[in-house]
From TrEMBL, chain B:
Name by which UniProt lists this protein: ABC transporter permease
Keyword Transport on entry: yes
PROSITE patterns the UniProt entry points to: ABC_TM1
Organism: Bradyrhizobium uaiense
Keywords annotated in UniProt: Cell membrane, Membrane, Transmembrane, Transmembrane helix, Transport
UniProtKB/TrEMBL annotation, chain C:
GO biological process, one term: transmembrane transport
UniProt membrane topology term: Multi-pass membrane protein
Source organism of this protein record: Bradyrhizobium uaiense
Keywords on record: Cell inner membrane, Cell membrane, Membrane, Transmembrane, Transmembrane helix, Transport
PANTHER family in the record: INNER MEMBRANE ABC TRANSPORTER PERMEASE PROTEIN YDCV
Protein name: ABC transporter permease subunit
Transmembrane segments: 21-38, 75-95, 107-128, 148-171, 192-215, 235-256
Family statement: Belongs to the binding-protein-dependent transport system permease family.
């Protein structure tokens, strides 16, 4: 990894009293697929608009290869943009939309033709080249918008929720295609989405935004396994958050007290005391009472209250005392039914804990705590 | 012609759409259409048709009236003057209207509301009153002249009305709201991110305007051109009041034939030709009607 | 993308000042008549020695002005009702019908708005003389109703376009007769469009001058015609007073609609084509 390609330094942006972005700092590495993930209204599009040069931040600097580009005109940046809703020019055909960046740069017409053909082939839209945008399906529009943004070989591609208008099936196809495209053209992608599964599937790194602040930056795996905040723990995938107390035993081993149970952990926590214990639903082993079960030491007794079938997996809600846990089962031959008594065992390696919400400082959350398992 | 087709249409409609209760004979809706169309024919199309018919019948049947109109030097002069003033005023109106509509979309919400009110206000004040105000402002003894003299820009009063200048001014003033509103309606529909996007794709501000904003606003401009062209050809009141008899356009010329010289042949023939031109414009541009009557969004 | 036009994309500054200048030009004659209306002289001028409401009183006390005001109301009310009757019938009947015939009829209904006034003047001058209604109250009402018709058609069809297309079928499947379906389900949904159409038709008649000049003589003298005649004598400040009142009424109406967020649709043109 070379020195940073695009640097975003303490960006703030306000709309009246609303703080759309607050002290956002971020390094983008050349060639990576970086995803800005956050719920609607978290400031993703605002950040993208600042990168594209459509809006100026109130404070902060954007640097490209060390050069300050915060106030540089959009056309001088060479960033390709695929905005929300695609922003195809409705009066131009597919071909002319894709040729637009080349025409305004006054390229020779022969080279325009060659390049447009090349990009259309890359995205397999040659057959619709003389149609108008309104005559295209959603998926085709998305491809044209991509082609247009790539046609002038930009240094960076900014994509704002390009999948949000598509149906689930098409979305899956296009996700695979986007990954292929990223590999093929090698351009740096900054991708905005509110869909956590999409972010996990596509990205090299994910930046989680909430209320205009960065909650966490990291690889999909590290963010999933070691969320830095309660927000991240809840937002990415299903999770169980339990009010527990961390304690360090006589041998230096960490364990938690929760709901009258003692749970041994495979991780070390930097603190003792009240915390949020997280355990993924798929990291809990469930056995029916009466069956012989392994790891009897730390097992917890519960009662099944609900069962939801999802096809490849099933979610089971288990009541333990006054609290309840979600457990994901894969391919169970005789699934438990409501009323069944079950044993639960937690995978010690996949426990994770967060300090209580109010003790967390935003600065600490900006980088993922490197906790050894 | 129209009536039997309307009935046939009504039947087909009643059968096809109202499958819930098959209607025998005419439905209520058929009756409403037929009744209102009959009134339109009797009270509107018939009188208009009579004008057209007269132009071919009086004083002698045939196309003699048209023949003599095409050779009439006075008519040539009047038509020439009309075309010249019309194109000048339409051109000015479209230019100023486009810029004003652009200023409207760029303005903040409060400024936009105020400006829109300023654009709409003249539409509600009688054109008689407006022309009266122009005369009061611009005549030799008027306010503008006295101000210009007091500031030392003029030595003696000049007449700014009762000549072509007054007519052009009055017509542009009258037509401007009709140009601004459809252009603004169209501009407001343009996705405001597209010009930004064009720039991120490499276009300079000028290119973004010429290649993206202008083509997208063109339907509004076309609707405005359509409306103002039709208006400018038929202007009567403004040239009559502000032209002072010196700038006679087609409509005033026709009125003179009806009230003073009693030349009904010339009046009906010119009216028919004017109707034809208007009809042709409507026929060609009827798809613009919807935008031309679009209401402004605030 | 949330773009808040960060930097001027075009020579926007120039356009903004030109646009403002145009708006000033548009309201200039309207504003100018206000001081004139308070003139204390019998001829048009800026107030000399002091302000006076003389001309506002003359409007209601001088017989010529008072009578023309009454006549205008007397013509405009029935004309607007008649226009509403015809236009509403057509819109209700033609609702949801497609095809070239309907399209043609719709354009014909807009004819009185599009065709130059002078042609109407010539046509009705002949036609009303022919049937003996020249310079009559009835003839004037009829012609004004026809001139108001397009506005009724425009505003009623605009409000019809937002009504659910299956309204009538639904009402009938619930047991309503065709007439009941129209009266009880459709009309209530388009009442704002109807009100707007009526107002526009009224204002059209109230303002009509070109055709009126050609179809009336001594008997019928509406307000615009009285203005027209007064302008031949001198620039009477009464006209300025009238215009100021109209301006006040318009401003109040604009204010009321923008405050109440009324759904009365403001169509661009209540005026006839001059
Ligand atoms: N032009 C604007 N004016 C006022 N508020 C804005 C503007 N653009 C965005 N916002 C506000 O800023 C916040 C962040 O918006 P945005 O970046 O679009 O969120 P996201 O793309 O993550 O959904 C939202 O609360 C939004 O309402
Ligand atoms: Mg967004």
């Amino acid at each position: 990894m070379s020195s940073s390609f695009l640097t975003i330094d303490s960006i703030c942006k306000r709309y009246g009293l609303l703080r759309a972005l607050e002290a956002v700092s971020l390094d983008v590495t050349q060639g990576e697929f970086l995803t800005l993930l956050g719920p609607s209204g978290s400031g993703k599009s605002t950040l993208l608009a600042i990168l594209a040069g459509f809006a100026e931040p109130d404070q902060g600097i954007v640097r490209l290869n060390g050069r300050d580009i915060t106030r540089l005109a959009p056309e001088a940046r060479r960033f390709g943009v695929v905005p929300q809703g695609y922003g195809l020019f409705p009066h131009l055909t597919v071909y002319e939309n894709i040729a637009f960046p080349l025409r305004v740069r006054r390229s020779r017409s022969a080279s325009i033709n060659g390049r447009v053909r090349q990009v259309m082939e890359l995205l397999q839209i040659g057959s619709v080249k003389s149609r108008l945008p309104r005559e295209l399906s959603g998926g085709q529009q998305q491809r044209v918008a991509l082609a247009r943004a790539l046609s002038f070989e930009p240094d960076l591609l900014l994509l704002d929720e390009p999948m949000s208008a598509l149906d689930a099936l098409l979305r899956r196809d296009l996700q695979a295609e986007l990954v292929r495209l990223h590999r093929q053209v090698g351009t740096t992608f900054v991708y905005v989405t509110h869909d956590q599964q999409e972010a996990l599937a596509l990205s090299d790194r994910i930046v989680v935004l909430n209320h205009g602040r960065i909650e966490q930056i990291g690889t999909p795996r590290s963010i999933y396994a070691q969320p830095a905040t309660r927000f991240v723990a809840n937002f990415l995938g299903k999770n169980n958050l339990l009010q527990a107390t961390a304690a360090i035993g006589p041998l230096g081993r960490l364990h938690f007290h929760w709901n009258g149970h003692r749970i041994a952990a495979g991780v070390t926590a930097p603190f003792e005391g009240p915390c949020s214990l997280t355990i993924r639903p798929e990291a809990i082993v469930l056995t029916k009472v009466g069956h012989s079960s392994q790891g009897t030491k730390d097992r917890i007794l519960g009662t099944v209250v609900n069962h939801t079938f999802h096809g490849a997996s099933a979610d089971v809600i288990v009541a333990v005392g006054h609290e309840s846990l979600t457990v994901t089962l894969t391919a169970a031959a005789s699934p438990p039914v409501p009323g069944d008594e079950v044993w639960l065992a937690f995978d010690a390696e996949r426990l994770w804990c967060l300090p209580e919400a109010d003790t967390i400082s935003p600065a600490a959350s900006a980088t993922s705590p490197e906790l050894a398992a | 012609m129209i009536l039997p087709s309307a009935i046939a249409l009504g039947r087909e409609f009643a059968g096809a759409r109202f499958q819930i209760a098959p209607v025998r004979g005419l439905s209520v809706q058929d009756g409403l259409v037929i009744g209102s169309v009959l009134v339109l024919i009797a009270c509107y199309l018939l009188p208009l048709g009579a004008v057209v018919a007269l132009s071919f019948l009086v004083p002698v049947p045939g196309i003699g009236n048209y023949w003599s109109i095409f050779q009439n030097a006075t008519v040539h002069a009047v038509v020439g003057k009309t075309l010249w003033i019309s194109s000048l005023t339409v051109g000015l109106t479209l230019l100023l209207g486009y810029i004003t509509a652009y200023a409207l979309v760029q303005a903040g919400p409060v400024a936009r509301k105020l400006m829109l009110a300023g654009v709409l206000l003249p539409l509600w004040i009688s054109v008689l009153v407006r022309n009266y105000a122009w005369i009061a402002l611009l005549s030799p003894g008027g306010i503008v002249n006295s101000i210009l003299i007091r500031w030392g820009w003029l030595d003696q009063p000049v007449s700014l009305v009762r000549n072509s200048f007054g007519v052009v001014l009055g017509m542009v003033h009258y037509m401007l709201p009709y140009a601004i509103l459809p252009i603004y309606a169209q501009m407001a529909r343009i996705d405001s991110t597209l010009p930004h996007l064009a720039r991120s794709l490499g276009a300079s501000p000028r290119q973004a305007f010429i290649r993206v904003f202008l083509p997208l606003s063109r339907p509004g401009l076309a609707a405005a051109a359509f409306l103002t062209s039709i208006m400018s050809l038929g202007f009567y009141l403004t040239p009559a009041m502000l032209g002072g008899g010196k700038t006679v356009m087609v409509a005033e010329f026709i009125s003179i034939q009806v009230t003073e010289t009693l030349r009904w042949d010339i009046a009906t023939t010119l009216s028919t030709l004017l109707l034809l031109v208007t009809g042709a414009l409507v026929w060609r541009f009827s798809h613009l009607l919807e935008l031309a009557t679009a209401k402004p969004k605030t | 993308m949330s773009a808040s036009s960060p930097r001027s994309l075009h020579p926007t500054r120039l356009a903004e000042s030109t646009g403002r200048a145009v708006v000033v030009f548009l309201v200039l004659p309207l504003v100018a008549i206000i001081p004139m209306s308070f003139s204390d002289t019998r001829y048009l001028s800026m107030p000399h020695d002091g302000l006076s409401t003389l001309h506002y009183w003359r409007l209601f006390s001088e017989p010529a002005w008072r009578d023309s005001l009454l006549q205008s109301v007397g013509v405009a009310l029935p004309a607007a009702c008649l226009a509403l009757l015809i236009g509403l019938s057509f819109c209700l009947g033609a609702w949801q019908r497609q095809g070239n015939m309907v399209r043609l009829l719709q354009i014909l209904m807009l004819g009185p708005l599009i065709v130059p006034g002078i042609i109407h003047a010539v046509a009705y001058h002949r036609a009303l003389s022919f049937i003996g209604l020249f310079d009559s109250f009835a003839g004037t009402v009829l012609v004004h109703a026809i001139k108001g018709l397009p506005f009724v058609v425009l505003s009623v069809s605009a409000s019809l376009s937002s009504v659910h297309p299956a309204t009538l079928q639904l009402a009938r499947s619930l047991g309503a007769s065709p007439a009941q379906a129209l009266w009880r389900t459709l009309l209530p949904q388009i009442r704002y469009g109807i009100a707007a159409g009526f107002i526009f038709a009224f204002v059209t008649s109230w303002d009509e001058i070109v055709v009126t000049l050609f179809i009336t003589s001594r008997n019928v003298i509406t307000l615009p015609k009285q203005i027209w005649q007064s302008l031949f004598l001198n620039l009477d400040p009464v006209v300025a007073a009238l215009g100021s009142l109209a301006l006040l009424a318009t401003l109040l109406a604009l204010l009321a609609t923008s405050l109440s967020g009324s759904r009365l649709r403001s169509l661009p043109s209540p005026n006839t084509i001059a």
